[in-house]
Write a structure and sequence with these properties.
3-stranded parallel sheet; 10-stranded mixed sheet; alpha/beta; GPCR_3_Ca_sens_rcpt-rel
Length: 457
């Protein structure tokens, strides 16, 4: 987010003579904390008082966040009252498309409604008739599986079993789920879950030596290969999943390696990042076993996930959210009096606009992202529903790598599901595909609704 804001402030063609500022808050995955921070932002006072604002003109333009759908709902309930625009980059719950309940919420991640349809198309394409489902025991998991079930049953597919992954550790439940999988004839299992809650179940599946399963991963864990230990890879290699489309953000890597606590001494996030990456402490104390951070540590010499900008997915959603706000502000600033969208052709004042006026422009914003794709919000405040179909494959060193083997486009004019079948790596190391897979004329197949067309490469 900071990188995007700095980039915009240096751009003479976008918001000329104006600079964007920012304040970053950590919700700590707490609804209570998020609500407190929302009131602090709206009122302009750390000690918040509902419906009281200590500044005549608020400097708050919009809020970017949150990732959790549950927390985004709490935030949207408050922000919607005052019509402050909110853009979430990872909250995919279908309920958030309801503009009567959440009038000022927009998002740069597709609704799970489309992900469930994408899974249904995938199951139909391979003619899988017997499928199991696992749902994390929260709305994300439960609604995702329910929507998938509604879609897939249209194609005559049967649900072999439907289990819930607990939010709190329960060895007995993990053992029971693993036993259900082991005893079922279903060899395809759709899993709507976050990555962290999957860890105990992954361990149990490996412990019971369950293999030969084609796992279908929702976007919350479809690229999270780090959840696997070396001895668990054989149980989950060949996983297929839908992921947020990846993109490249020029200049981001250079920005990241240039971060240093000495350059931004008040930035607590950089200090915390430094401690985690280099396993040191700025003030370790006498009894602590970690060494002291010196500032001589060098980010450029590291190779880790923080500095890897080759697989940007959620990050690009944040980036596009910031640019959406900037373009909306630019359009508001560029308004000609007498031709404005408000009563009697009035324009909003860029230095004293109402939250609802910026929301008006955000709902109608259109711009090209760095990849040349058009970004906009539909009537529900949702982004264009596109996903990459990814596949967990063995790398040359035996590790798991994420490969893109297809795409889903749920926009009105897009080909809905495109597959490179021959590129798929199946559980057990097969490259030729499952026996019950389709007969293929070409290696690239496109599935649109009930129609299937074949294309040669």
């Amino acid at each position: 987010m900071i990188f995007a804001i700095n980039e915009i402030n240096k751009n003479e063609d976008l918001l000329p003579n104006l600079s964007l500022g920012y304040a970053i808050y950590d919700t700590c995955n707490s609804i209570t904390r998020a609500v407190e921070q929302m009131f602090a932002l709206i009122t302009g006072n750390e000690v918040y008082v509902p419906n009281y604002q200590c500044h005549i003109n608020s400097s708050l333009a919009a809020v970017i966040g949150e990732s959790s759908s549950t927390i985004s709902i709490a935030m949207a309930t408050i922000l919607g009252i005052y019509q402050y625009p909110q853009i979430s980059y990872f909250s995919s719950l279908p309920a958030l498309s309801n503009k009567k309940e959440f009038p000022s919420l927009l998002r740069t991640i597709p609704s799970d409604t489309f992900q469930s349809k994408a899974f249904a198309y995938l199951v139909k394409h391979f003619d899988w008739k017997w499928v199991g489902t696992l749902a994390e025991d929260i709305e994300y998991g439960i609604q995702g599986v329910q929507l998938f079930r509604e879609e897939v049953e249209k194609y005559g597919v049967c649900i072999a079993f439907a289990e819930k992954i607990p939010l709190t550790f329960s060895r007995a439940t993990y053992q029971q789920i693993a036993e259900t999988i082991k005893s079922s004839n279903a060899k395809v299992i759709v899993v709507f879950s976050g990555d962290s809650n999957l860890l105990p179940l992954v361990e149990e599946i490996a412990k019971q030596n369950i293999t030969g399963i084609t796992w279908l991963a929702s976007e919350a864990w479809s690229t999270a290969t780090y959840i696997l230990k070396e001895n668990q890879i054989k149980h989950f290699e060949g996983t297929l999943g839908f992921a947020i489309t990846k993109s490249h953000i020029p200049g981001l890597h250079e920005f990241l390696v240039g971060l240093h606590p000495f350059n931004e001494p008040q930035d607590m996030f950089i200090k915390e990042l430094w401690e985690n990456i280099f396993e040191c402490l700025w003030n370790p104390g006498v009894k602590h076993d970690r060494r002291e951070c010196t500032g001589a540590e060098n980010l450029e010499k590291l190779t880790n996930t923080f500095l890897d900008t080759s697989e940007l997915r959620v990050t690009s959603n944040v980036y596009n959210a910031v640019y959406a706000v900037a373009h909306a502000l630019h359009n508001l600033q560029s308004c000609e009096q007498g031709k404005g969208p408000f009563e009697e052709g009035r324009c909003a004042d860029i230095h004293a606009f109402e939250p609802s006026q910026l929301l008006h422009y955000l709902k109608r914003v259109q711009f090209l992202d760095k990849a040349g794709n058009i970004q906009y919000f539909d009537e529900n405040g949702d982004t264009v529903p596109k996903y990459d179909l990814v596949n967990w494959q063995r790398g040359s060193d035996g590790s798991v790598v994420v490969k893109t083997v297809g795409r889903y486009d749920g926009s009105k004019f897009g080909v809905e599901l495109e597959l490179d079948v021959e590129a798929i790596y199946w559980n057990g190391g097969q490259k030729e595909g499952l026996a019950e897979g389709p007969n293929r004329v070409g290696s690239l197949l496109a599935v649109t609704g009930f129609e299937m067309e074949s294309f040669q490469k």
